[in-house]
Design goal:
about 325 residues, 9 strands, alpha/beta
């Protein structure tokens, strides 16, 4: 995959790969850097004095150069990932999900790694999420929601974790649908199973992560990737959640409070102890699977008030090389 200068610079500046002495930029730090350099590709080849002349402090210039000096190591890593079927996508690439821009604003990741059919990233989908330890009734309703999403010609979007996530994805697969998985664990390991490889080969799935493709699961990673599911989906169905704690609860509350995406919550057999509270916080109640279509239509009409990258005066009209 041939990267543009802007995309290459973005990978070098933010990727947590071959770190060494470099300190990759976090999302908010990279946003501030882009206020000075809207086209990060123009940082390539700059000297320390040139960086300072353009508004960076000595410490900032040192940090930029340390990141850019990783070019050789990053190139080897990207080639290795490419052989595994993993590719980087930056905000400066056409494949980058437009809903990340529209819904997440300044919280959108500058870089994601993907494997599979990236066209799905810009296709309207339906999220299905929930607890890892879902009961039998919750498992069944999860399968039904996923099947209904397929009937509505929407990809099923989830997080790949055991429990609700995997049940939803497997049901979509079994009913001939498409799958989008936003991962908090190793992308490289997740795409090794025969089941996933077949889905990817058939162009029915895309797996993605905003983290190092080989990074293992952490609670922080799970919290960070939750917003990607809500942003990609027209509406995300919370099948079961704990009350006041846990990744599903936290992700849904964050989506509601920050308008990261439309939230629907299952109300019926198999629901979790936190579901009713999420409805009270503003999520749409679903008491039957057939109501999913109305929830999608309602989400489309209502829209969300959110800060866009253009409003924040960053990433506005990005150029590619």
């Amino acid at each position: 995959m041939q990267l543009s200068q802007n995309a290459l610079a973005t990978v070098l500046l933010v990727a947590h790969i071959d770190v060494g002495e470099a300190k990759p930029f976090k999302v908010n730090e990279f946003r501030k850097l882009l206020e000075l350099f809207p086209e990060p590709g123009k940082l390539l080849g700059k000297t320390h004095s040139e960086l300072q002349a353009n508004g960076l402090s000595k410490i900032q210039a040192d940090r930029v150069l340390n990141c850019l000096d990783r070019a050789t190591g990053i190139a080897f890593a990207l080639e290795r990932f490419h052989e595994m079927g993993v590719e980087p996508i930056t905000r400066f690439d056409e494949q980058y999900p437009t809903n990340f821009i529209k819904k997440l604003g300044t919280s959108a990741p500058s870089l994601i790694f993907t494997s599979g059919s990236t066209q799905l990233l810009n296709r309207a989908g339906i999220g299905v999420v929930g607890s890892r330890n879902v009961n039998e009734e919750g498992h069944k309703i999860t399968q039904n929601f996923a099947q209904e999403a397929v009937n509505l010609n929407r990809p099923v979007i989830s997080g790949g974790a055991r429990g609700v996530d995997q049940a939803a994805m497997r049901s979509a697969e079994e009913h001939g649908g498409f799958v989008i998985a936003a991962l908090a664990n190793s992308l490289v390991k997740s795409i090794q199973s025969a089941e996933v490889r077949k889905l990817i080969f058939d162009e029915r799935a895309v797996f993605l992560t905003p983290y190092n493709p080989e990074a293992g699961f952490t609670v922080g990673n799970a919290m960070g990737r939750n917003k990607l599911i809500y942003a990609l989906a027209e509406t995300t169905v919370v099948v079961s959640s704990d009350k006041g704690s846990g990744g599903t609860w936290t992700g849904a509350v964050e989506a509601l409070e920050k308008n990261f995406g439309h939230v629907s919550v299952w109300s019926g057999k198999g629901e979790g102890p936190g579901n009713k509270d999420l409805i009270e916080k503003g999520a749409r109640e679903l008491s039957s699977v057939s109501q999913l279509k109305d929830a999608v239509e309602s989400a489309g009409k209502a829209g969300t008030k959110r800060e866009t990258f253009e409003q924040a005066n960053i990433f506005a009209n990005p150029t590619t090389d």
